[in-house]
Amino acid sequence: MPEGPSLVILRERAESLAGLKVLEASGNTKQDLLRLPGSRLKSVRTWGKHFLLDFGDFAVRIHMLMFGSYCIDERKEDKTPRLSRRFTRKRELNFYSCSVKFIDEPLDDAYDWAADVMADEWDPKAARRKLKAMPDTICADALLEQDVFAGVGNIIKNEVLHRIRVHPQTRIGDLPSRKLTELIVQAREYSFDFYEWKKEFTLRQHWQVHAKKTCPRDGTPLSFCRHLGKKERRAFWCDTCQRFYGEGEPPPLPAPKPTTRRLGRR
């Protein structure tokens, strides 16, 4: 699933479409595409993992889900777009394997821009208040709460917790004040690092624990859980340098879920 920084890169690539009029809209979405032809694109915006095309009196929200992709001024010959728009000046924008939704209320009413970790309006004090209201939530889940950290995904979560040396099962209420501050600060700072590395095509080279086997700080084999916390997302961490804050030992890890295999037709 693309995380917030990747959507910012998409926004930058698509900003030149602003001001153009939609000539034709098609795709296999169930949304009413007849609303689009004749509409002029006012601006291109993002909120967390949402890509937003603002037409003034309505907007189109694109969520990439797990395997979404896009093409600007070209298209994939082997796939049908979920949403395809042809603009004036021979421009086009195509999305695949994503969720499409129309938003009829003003975007400033629909979104809390202060929750977006990459937005100029980002408000760390508001994030702190929200976290204080969820003391029993483990850090691994808290970082994925889009109402608190819009744009943070699983890669950023794993890397931030390693960067600040906090065990993913630590409850928010057990974090010392300085560590809570570090979590909030690094959720934003790592997102901008992610953005720069993604543009350089070096993101994977900078991963410290995500999808890795050994901690680069101390050489300890990393721990792994495929379905950690209520969010049930993959977690990678080091039991040596990432401290568990709280009484006793970290809770037992959930038992692995059985995997299902699709049987081919005979």
TrEMBL record:
Source organism superkingdom: Bacteria
Domain Formamidopyrimidine-DNA glycosylase catalytic as annotated: residue spans: 2-94
Catalytic activities: Hydrolysis of DNA containing ring-opened 7-methylguanine residues, releasing 2,6-diamino-4-hydroxy-5-(N-methyl)formamidopyrimidine
One Pfam family this sequence matches: H2TH
MF term (GO), any: endonuclease activity
UniProt entry keywords in alphabetical sequence: DNA damage, DNA repair, DNA-binding, Endonuclease, Glycosidase, Hydrolase, Lyase, Multifunctional enzyme, Nuclease
DNA-binding is among the record's keywords: yes
Key word DNA repair present: yes
Family of the protein in this entry: Belongs to the FPG family.
Protein name: Endonuclease
